[in-house]
Design a protein that fits this description.
globular, mainly beta, 317 residues
Length: 317
Protein backbone atom coordinates (compact mmCIF):
# COMPACT_ATOMS: atom_id res chain seq x y z
CA UNK A 1 0.00 0.00 0.00
CA UNK A 2 1.42 3.36 -1.04
CA UNK A 3 1.97 6.23 1.37
CA UNK A 4 -1.16 8.16 2.28
CA UNK A 5 -0.32 11.28 0.26
CA UNK A 6 1.13 9.55 -2.79
CA UNK A 7 -0.54 9.15 -6.17
CA UNK A 8 -2.41 5.84 -5.92
CA UNK A 9 -3.22 5.32 -9.61
CA UNK A 10 -1.59 5.47 -13.03
CA UNK A 11 -2.33 7.13 -16.36
CA UNK A 12 -3.27 3.88 -18.13
CA UNK A 13 -6.64 3.34 -16.46
CA UNK A 14 -9.80 3.80 -18.54
CA UNK A 15 -11.97 5.39 -15.85
CA UNK A 16 -10.24 6.92 -12.87
CA UNK A 17 -9.97 10.06 -10.78
CA UNK A 18 -7.71 11.18 -7.99
CA UNK A 19 -7.78 14.41 -6.05
CA UNK A 20 -6.18 15.97 -2.98
CA UNK A 21 -8.04 18.40 -0.72
CA UNK A 22 -5.89 21.11 0.94
CA UNK A 23 -7.86 23.42 3.24
CA UNK A 24 -6.35 26.56 4.84
CA UNK A 25 -7.91 28.94 7.40
CA UNK A 26 -6.36 32.27 8.36
CA UNK A 27 -5.34 32.93 11.96
CA UNK A 28 -8.17 35.42 12.50
CA UNK A 29 -10.66 32.89 11.07
CA UNK A 30 -12.09 35.48 8.67
CA UNK A 31 -10.87 33.84 5.47
CA UNK A 32 -10.45 30.27 4.28
CA UNK A 33 -9.42 28.69 1.01
CA UNK A 34 -9.33 25.09 -0.17
CA UNK A 35 -7.48 23.78 -3.21
CA UNK A 36 -8.28 20.51 -4.97
CA UNK A 37 -5.55 19.45 -7.40
CA UNK A 38 -6.46 16.33 -9.34
CA UNK A 39 -6.80 14.39 -12.56
CA UNK A 40 -9.51 12.44 -14.38
CA UNK A 41 -9.29 9.64 -16.94
CA UNK A 42 -12.33 8.84 -19.06
CA UNK A 43 -13.28 8.16 -22.66
CA UNK A 44 -14.16 11.70 -23.71
CA UNK A 45 -12.38 14.25 -21.53
CA UNK A 46 -9.24 13.19 -19.68
CA UNK A 47 -7.48 16.15 -18.11
CA UNK A 48 -5.97 17.54 -14.92
CA UNK A 49 -7.34 20.41 -12.88
CA UNK A 50 -7.09 22.63 -9.83
CA UNK A 51 -10.33 23.64 -8.11
CA UNK A 52 -10.62 26.26 -5.42
CA UNK A 53 -13.24 27.37 -2.92
CA UNK A 54 -12.64 30.68 -1.14
CA UNK A 55 -14.70 32.33 1.59
CA UNK A 56 -14.28 35.72 3.22
CA UNK A 57 -16.41 37.70 5.65
CA UNK A 58 -17.94 40.94 4.43
CA UNK A 59 -18.43 44.10 6.56
CA UNK A 60 -21.42 42.50 8.31
CA UNK A 61 -19.59 39.27 9.12
CA UNK A 62 -21.51 37.30 6.47
CA UNK A 63 -19.49 34.70 4.55
CA UNK A 64 -19.13 35.23 0.79
CA UNK A 65 -18.02 32.18 -1.21
CA UNK A 66 -16.27 32.02 -4.58
CA UNK A 67 -15.30 28.88 -6.48
CA UNK A 68 -13.43 28.03 -9.65
CA UNK A 69 -12.32 25.08 -11.79
CA UNK A 70 -9.16 25.58 -13.84
CA UNK A 71 -8.52 22.91 -16.47
CA UNK A 72 -5.10 21.73 -17.64
CA UNK A 73 -4.01 19.09 -20.15
CA UNK A 74 -3.48 15.64 -18.67
CA UNK A 75 0.20 16.02 -19.57
CA UNK A 76 0.40 18.88 -17.06
CA UNK A 77 -0.16 16.41 -14.21
CA UNK A 78 3.31 15.53 -12.91
CA UNK A 79 3.90 13.65 -9.67
CA UNK A 80 6.70 12.30 -7.54
CA UNK A 81 6.42 9.82 -4.66
CA UNK A 82 9.57 10.44 -2.63
CA UNK A 83 9.35 13.18 -1.64
CA UNK A 84 5.68 13.55 -2.50
CA UNK A 85 4.87 16.34 -4.96
CA UNK A 86 2.06 16.96 -7.42
CA UNK A 87 2.61 19.68 -10.03
CA UNK A 88 -0.18 20.91 -12.29
CA UNK A 89 0.78 23.83 -14.51
CA UNK A 90 2.52 26.38 -12.29
CA UNK A 91 0.94 24.95 -9.13
CA UNK A 92 2.81 22.67 -6.76
CA UNK A 93 1.51 20.70 -3.77
CA UNK A 94 3.70 18.75 -1.38
CA UNK A 95 3.90 17.67 2.26
CA UNK A 96 5.56 20.93 3.26
CA UNK A 97 4.56 23.52 0.62
CA UNK A 98 1.75 24.89 -1.49
CA UNK A 99 2.85 27.11 -4.37
CA UNK A 100 -0.22 28.46 -6.13
CA UNK A 101 -0.57 30.55 -9.29
CA UNK A 102 -4.18 30.45 -10.49
CA UNK A 103 -6.33 32.86 -12.43
CA UNK A 104 -9.84 32.67 -13.91
CA UNK A 105 -12.58 35.18 -14.68
CA UNK A 106 -13.51 35.47 -10.98
CA UNK A 107 -10.26 35.49 -9.05
CA UNK A 108 -6.48 35.56 -9.17
CA UNK A 109 -4.61 33.62 -6.49
CA UNK A 110 -0.85 33.79 -6.11
CA UNK A 111 1.66 32.90 -3.40
CA UNK A 112 3.34 30.24 -1.27
CA UNK A 113 2.34 28.60 2.00
CA UNK A 114 4.56 26.48 4.22
CA UNK A 115 2.86 23.56 5.98
CA UNK A 116 3.83 22.52 9.51
CA UNK A 117 3.99 19.04 11.01
CA UNK A 118 0.95 16.95 10.15
CA UNK A 119 -1.38 15.57 12.81
CA UNK A 120 -1.94 12.06 11.50
CA UNK A 121 -4.74 9.65 12.31
CA UNK A 122 -4.08 6.38 14.12
CA UNK A 123 -3.03 3.56 11.78
CA UNK A 124 -2.84 -0.17 12.48
CA UNK A 125 -2.71 -3.28 10.26
CA UNK A 126 -6.51 -3.47 10.63
CA UNK A 127 -6.90 0.26 10.02
CA UNK A 128 -4.17 1.22 7.51
CA UNK A 129 -6.31 4.16 6.35
CA UNK A 130 -9.41 5.98 7.61
CA UNK A 131 -11.40 3.29 5.70
CA UNK A 132 -10.08 0.53 7.94
CA UNK A 133 -10.11 -2.94 6.35
CA UNK A 134 -12.07 -1.58 3.36
CA UNK A 135 -8.81 0.06 2.33
CA UNK A 136 -7.56 -3.41 1.37
CA UNK A 137 -10.59 -4.28 -0.78
CA UNK A 138 -9.90 -3.95 -4.54
CA UNK A 139 -12.14 -2.08 -6.97
CA UNK A 140 -14.08 -0.02 -4.44
CA UNK A 141 -16.00 2.82 -6.10
CA UNK A 142 -14.24 5.47 -4.03
CA UNK A 143 -11.33 5.35 -1.59
CA UNK A 144 -10.91 8.06 1.02
CA UNK A 145 -7.97 9.02 3.22
CA UNK A 146 -7.34 11.63 5.90
CA UNK A 147 -3.78 12.92 5.64
CA UNK A 148 -3.61 15.59 8.35
CA UNK A 149 -6.28 16.48 10.88
CA UNK A 150 -4.47 19.73 11.62
CA UNK A 151 -1.19 21.53 10.95
CA UNK A 152 0.09 25.08 11.23
CA UNK A 153 0.53 27.40 8.27
CA UNK A 154 3.09 30.07 7.41
CA UNK A 155 2.97 32.50 4.51
CA UNK A 156 0.68 34.78 2.52
CA UNK A 157 -1.52 34.51 -0.54
CA UNK A 158 -2.62 37.31 -2.83
CA UNK A 159 -6.31 36.50 -3.33
CA UNK A 160 -7.98 39.00 -5.61
CA UNK A 161 -7.41 42.44 -4.04
CA UNK A 162 -6.49 41.04 -0.63
CA UNK A 163 -3.10 40.03 0.71
CA UNK A 164 -4.17 37.28 3.14
CA UNK A 165 -1.77 36.29 5.91
CA UNK A 166 -2.18 32.61 6.85
CA UNK A 167 0.72 32.57 9.31
CA UNK A 168 -0.48 30.96 12.55
CA UNK A 169 -3.57 29.61 10.83
CA UNK A 170 -4.44 25.94 10.44
CA UNK A 171 -4.58 23.51 7.55
CA UNK A 172 -6.26 20.17 6.86
CA UNK A 173 -5.60 17.59 4.10
CA UNK A 174 -7.55 14.60 2.78
CA UNK A 175 -7.85 12.84 -0.57
CA UNK A 176 -10.08 10.61 -2.74
CA UNK A 177 -9.46 8.24 -5.63
CA UNK A 178 -11.38 5.64 -7.61
CA UNK A 179 -13.97 5.56 -10.38
CA UNK A 180 -16.91 7.51 -8.94
CA UNK A 181 -17.93 9.69 -5.98
CA UNK A 182 -20.70 8.27 -3.75
CA UNK A 183 -24.13 9.12 -5.12
CA UNK A 184 -25.11 10.56 -1.74
CA UNK A 185 -23.11 11.50 1.35
CA UNK A 186 -22.60 13.87 4.26
CA UNK A 187 -19.11 15.26 4.97
CA UNK A 188 -18.12 17.41 7.96
CA UNK A 189 -14.74 18.75 9.05
CA UNK A 190 -13.35 21.34 11.46
CA UNK A 191 -10.15 21.93 13.43
CA UNK A 192 -11.14 25.37 14.75
CA UNK A 193 -12.70 24.69 18.15
CA UNK A 194 -12.41 26.71 21.36
CA UNK A 195 -10.03 23.97 22.47
CA UNK A 196 -7.21 24.43 19.92
CA UNK A 197 -6.26 20.74 20.09
CA UNK A 198 -9.71 19.46 19.11
CA UNK A 199 -10.43 18.36 15.54
CA UNK A 200 -13.15 16.44 13.73
CA UNK A 201 -13.71 14.54 10.50
CA UNK A 202 -17.01 12.78 9.69
CA UNK A 203 -18.48 11.12 6.62
CA UNK A 204 -21.56 9.01 5.99
CA UNK A 205 -21.94 7.69 2.44
CA UNK A 206 -23.75 5.26 0.18
CA UNK A 207 -21.31 2.47 -0.70
CA UNK A 208 -21.84 -0.08 -3.50
CA UNK A 209 -20.09 -3.32 -2.59
CA UNK A 210 -19.82 -6.20 -5.06
CA UNK A 211 -23.44 -6.23 -6.16
CA UNK A 212 -24.78 -5.02 -2.82
CA UNK A 213 -24.89 -1.64 -1.13
CA UNK A 214 -24.84 -0.17 2.37
CA UNK A 215 -24.49 3.09 4.27
CA UNK A 216 -21.02 3.37 5.70
CA UNK A 217 -19.72 5.92 8.18
CA UNK A 218 -16.25 6.95 9.27
CA UNK A 219 -15.44 9.56 11.90
CA UNK A 220 -12.40 10.54 13.89
CA UNK A 221 -12.58 12.96 16.81
CA UNK A 222 -9.40 14.22 18.48
CA UNK A 223 -9.78 15.60 21.98
CA UNK A 224 -7.64 15.66 25.12
CA UNK A 225 -4.64 14.16 23.37
CA UNK A 226 -6.61 11.10 22.21
CA UNK A 227 -8.23 10.06 18.96
CA UNK A 228 -11.67 8.50 19.10
CA UNK A 229 -12.68 6.53 16.00
CA UNK A 230 -16.24 5.70 15.00
CA UNK A 231 -16.82 3.56 11.93
CA UNK A 232 -19.02 0.94 10.37
CA UNK A 233 -16.05 -1.42 10.46
CA UNK A 234 -15.79 -0.88 14.25
CA UNK A 235 -19.51 -1.60 14.78
CA UNK A 236 -20.31 1.86 16.09
CA UNK A 237 -23.86 3.09 15.56
CA UNK A 238 -24.98 6.20 13.70
CA UNK A 239 -28.20 8.18 13.51
CA UNK A 240 -28.46 11.07 11.01
CA UNK A 241 -31.30 13.58 10.75
CA UNK A 242 -31.86 16.81 8.83
CA UNK A 243 -33.90 19.09 11.15
CA UNK A 244 -33.92 22.08 8.77
CA UNK A 245 -32.52 23.17 5.46
CA UNK A 246 -28.76 23.75 5.76
CA UNK A 247 -28.56 21.64 8.94
CA UNK A 248 -27.59 18.08 9.77
CA UNK A 249 -27.40 16.21 13.07
CA UNK A 250 -25.48 13.01 13.71
CA UNK A 251 -25.14 10.82 16.81
CA UNK A 252 -22.30 8.28 16.89
CA UNK A 253 -21.90 5.78 19.68
CA UNK A 254 -19.97 2.71 20.80
CA UNK A 255 -19.70 0.91 24.12
CA UNK A 256 -17.22 3.48 25.52
CA UNK A 257 -18.11 6.94 24.17
CA UNK A 258 -20.86 8.93 22.46
CA UNK A 259 -20.48 11.88 20.08
CA UNK A 260 -23.27 14.24 19.01
CA UNK A 261 -22.82 16.63 16.07
CA UNK A 262 -25.01 19.51 14.92
CA UNK A 263 -23.72 21.18 11.76
CA UNK A 264 -25.13 24.27 10.03
CA UNK A 265 -24.08 26.66 7.28
CA UNK A 266 -25.35 29.80 5.56
CA UNK A 267 -23.34 29.97 2.34
CA UNK A 268 -21.96 27.44 -0.13
CA UNK A 269 -20.21 27.35 -3.48
CA UNK A 270 -20.26 25.01 -6.48
CA UNK A 271 -17.59 22.35 -6.88
CA UNK A 272 -17.29 19.63 -9.50
CA UNK A 273 -17.17 15.95 -8.50
CA UNK A 274 -16.28 12.87 -10.54
CA UNK A 275 -18.69 10.38 -12.11
CA UNK A 276 -17.67 7.52 -14.43
CA UNK A 277 -18.05 9.77 -17.50
CA UNK A 278 -15.78 12.47 -16.05
CA UNK A 279 -15.81 15.55 -13.84
CA UNK A 280 -19.49 16.35 -14.42
CA UNK A 281 -21.39 16.35 -11.12
CA UNK A 282 -22.01 19.74 -9.49
CA UNK A 283 -22.03 19.64 -5.68
CA UNK A 284 -22.35 22.30 -3.00
CA UNK A 285 -19.74 22.88 -0.31
CA UNK A 286 -19.36 25.44 2.45
CA UNK A 287 -16.14 26.01 4.39
CA UNK A 288 -17.41 28.58 6.89
CA UNK A 289 -20.03 26.56 8.73
CA UNK A 290 -20.32 25.64 12.40
CA UNK A 291 -20.34 22.23 14.08
CA UNK A 292 -21.51 21.95 17.68
CA UNK A 293 -20.10 18.81 19.32
CA UNK A 294 -21.00 17.07 22.58
CA UNK A 295 -18.73 14.23 23.62
CA UNK A 296 -19.58 11.85 26.48
CA UNK A 297 -17.21 9.32 28.04
CA UNK A 298 -19.30 6.51 29.50
CA UNK A 299 -16.52 5.27 31.78
CA UNK A 300 -15.39 8.56 33.33
CA UNK A 301 -18.82 10.27 32.97
CA UNK A 302 -17.03 13.27 31.47
CA UNK A 303 -18.97 15.53 29.09
CA UNK A 304 -17.24 17.93 26.73
CA UNK A 305 -19.02 20.47 24.53
CA UNK A 306 -17.50 22.79 21.97
CA UNK A 307 -18.23 24.54 18.66
CA UNK A 308 -16.07 24.18 15.57
CA UNK A 309 -15.89 27.24 13.31
CA UNK A 310 -14.84 27.56 9.65
CA UNK A 311 -16.21 24.07 9.17
CA UNK A 312 -16.32 22.20 5.90
CA UNK A 313 -19.83 20.90 5.20
CA UNK A 314 -21.24 18.97 2.24
CA UNK A 315 -24.70 17.40 2.08
CA UNK A 316 -25.07 15.72 -1.31
CA UNK A 317 -28.36 14.24 -2.62
Amino acid sequence: MKGALNFQGNLKKRRYFEGWYYKQVSFDEKRAISFIPGMTLNEKDSHSFVQYIYVEQNENGKPITKTGYIRYPLESFIWNDDPFTVKIGENLFSESLISIHLEDENLKIDGNLQLGTFTSIKRTPYMPTIMGPFGYVPKMECYHEVISMSHLLKGELQIGDHQVDFTGGKGYIEKDWGSNFPKQYVWLQSNHFENPHTSLFFSDAHIPFYGREFQGHICTFSYGGKEYRFATYLNSTLEVTFPREHEVQATLENDKVKLELHASFSDQGNLIAPVPSGMEKAIKEGIAGEIAVTFYNKKTKETYSDVGKMAGIEIVD
